[in-house]
Amino acid sequence: ALAYAFSGRDPISLTMKKIYPAAIVGTSTISVYDWDENLAIAHRTDPDAAQTLAENTLLQNAQKQVLARKLKLPVSISGMAGELSFDQSEFQSDYQTLLDEYFFGQENLFAKYVAVPQYYDSLLRVAYNSDTRANAKAYAKAQGLLARINAGQKFEDVAAESDDAITAPLGGDLGVVSKDQILPELMAAVETAPVGKVDPQIVVSRYGYHILYPVEAAEKNGQKVWHIKQILVQTSGYENWLNSQLAAVSVWRIK
């Protein structure tokens, strides 16, 4: 009760808010401090945002973290850093403006409430997509497309059937990219794939199944870059799978 009553920014108030939970999710807790901080960011992002939506998002993100640990997914600090770098690359010159307008100029808040939850969601999506039996139709399509390329059909022609609406008309061309400009799980595959050849392995990402073709690699301004083409076969059913998994992660909301 004292933790909820304190409203000041003095050391005692902040300590109380950081110690006491606003919710218990599985074996983890969300502190009163984090609960209030999340709401402050939500209202700054959209002053008319429903408070209930922001709270439910915070709770579900906590559930996803508990589920990832339960499934023993490969959670790592470097993986979280990679997700943050990917986000920074996506926003490019607007990144600092984003921080200033919505996250009080603090990158750690963006990482805490955007990049890290996105990272855990990507781990769960990859885990779901890695179950090729649950995604048999999509995986079979990807295998069929790869078989056609291996049989001699031009990659660019097969890429017209990609589920990526942007690259499909371009023969699957992603252009020239640096390390942080494509999904981290795809870049991990690109870095080990043979250059100048279609990767013989179907790569699993948060979106589905990819056939990768690292056309060439080069150095630009002291940084390694790749010219990449890809074919994507999207999966479906993740949300239903996720909801069934999260149902087993208990939530006790105190505040």
For this entry, give a set of tags:
single chain, 255 residues, alpha+beta, four-stranded antiparallel β-sheet, 11 helices, 51% helix, 18% strand
Description of the molecule:
This protein has 255 residues and is α+β, with helices and mostly antiparallel strands. It has 11 helices and 7 strands. It has helices spanning 2-5, 11-19, 32-45, 51-70, 77-91, 95-102, 107-129, 136-150, 155-158, 184-192, 238-246, and strands at residues 21-25, 28-31, 173-178, 203-204, 208-220, 223-234, 251-253. β1 (21-25) and β2 (28-31) form a beta hairpin. α3 (32-45) crosses α4, α4 packs across α7 (107-129) and α5 (77-91) crosses α7. The protein starts with a helix and ends with a strand.
Task: Set out the fold topology.
Blueprint: H1 2-5, H2 11-19, E1 21-25, E2 28-31, H3 32-45, H4 51-70, H5 77-91, H6 95-102, H7 107-129, H8 136-150, H9 155-158, E3 173-178, H10 184-192, E4 203-204, E5 208-220, E6 223-234, H11 238-246, E7 251-253
Antiparallel strand pairs: 1-2, 1-7, 3-6, 4-5, 5-6
Helix pairs in contact: 3-4, 4-7, 5-7
Average pLDDT, rounded to a whole number, is 93
Number of strands: 7
Count of helices? 11
List the helices and strands in order. HHEEHHHHHHHEHEEEHE
Question: What is this entry, summarized?
Answer:
The protein has 255 residues and is α+β, with helices and mostly antiparallel strands. The chain contains eleven helices and seven strands.
